[in-house]
Write a structure and sequence with these properties.
single chain, 264 residues, alpha+beta, seven-stranded mixed beta sheet, 12 helices, 7 strands
Length: 264
């Protein structure tokens, strides 16, 4: 897909879904670190913070030298997982798990790239893309992400949209690495880390999908935006329920229309 089309579809998606921030494109750079890419090289940033900056309009690069979150660094193969996280005691210390065994199992099941394979991550707002991303990430209100999931369901021909999460590493693993490795749509409620480190709101969540599905998903969102989306957002059935409830209450009210016949 040419860059102009990517940008145009990204703008359209943002408008149709009523997103408060941009869809983010994520490029996995396996060769020379970000050669020829014009973007700010981040230092002392967590991955979820880099994603936040991309959603807010910036082009940024994050690599092994710049990433500050040890869990994300291990997932992307930048660094080894520190022992307190590996043995689960670190999550007990944060108050996330009741015992180290739970934390250990969470990290044992963590998808991860081989050490040293990935050189850098390039994150950018999709409407100003300069290259095709590998993954597209959305972070916004749950209702908005629901339409993305429904578009993905259409893309699957009705197959159920199943997601996996450890309620840990929501931005780096759930919304980015799983879509990249498994080439599938995945969503997440968020996690301790991204909710502590970024501007994500309590009503917001994340979803990511491989770029190969971008054109199809954009097309199905366009379909949903014609009828299903505006009708659902009008809440016609809820309004009717409220009106009927008011009518029933008024009919049962002995004081309605100054009718006191029901009072003895």
């Amino acid at each position: 897909m040419d860059i102009k089309t990517i940008r145009a579809k990204a703008v359209s998606l943002k408008s149709q879904l009523n997103l408060d921030s941009s869809l983010a494109g994520v490029k996995f750079i396996m060769g020379e670190p970000a050669a020829g890419i014009k973007a700010e090289r981040l230092v002392g940033h967590r991955y979820c913070q880099a994603l936040m900056r991309a959603r807010r309009g910036e082009h940024v690069i994050l690599d092994a030298a710049g990433i500050s979150c040890p869990a994300a660094a291990a997932a992307f193969g930048f660094k080894l997982l520190p022992e307190p996280l590996k043995n689960g005691t670190g999550l007990v210390g944060f108050g996330i798990t009741a015992g180290p065994g739970t934390g250990m199992k969470m990290f044992e099941g963590m998808p991860a790239l081989p050490q040293g394979r990935l050189k850098a991550l390039y994150l950018f707002p999709l409407e100003t893309a300069e290259v095709e991303p590998d993954v597209v990430v959305a972070e916004d209100g749950v209702e908005k992400l629901m339409w993305l999931a429904l578009a993905e369901l259409n893309n699957r021909g009705g197959g159920r949209v199943e997601s996996g999460t450890a309620v840990l590493q929501a931005a780096c693993v759930d919304a980015t690495l799983i879509p990249y490795l498994k080439q599938k749509f995945n969503s997440s409620f968020g996690c301790y880390g991204c909710r502590d480190a970024t501007d994500i709101g309590p009503h917001e969540a994340l979803a990511g999908f491989p770029f190969k599905d971008f054109e199809a998903i954009a097309g199905f969102v366009d379909l949903l935006a014609k009828k299903a989306m505006p009708n659902s957002r009008k809440k016609n059935a809820y309004s009717l329920l409220q009106k009927n409830t008011v009518k029933k209450a008024a009919k049962a009210d002995p004081f309605q229309n100054n009718d006191c016949s029901g009072i003895k």
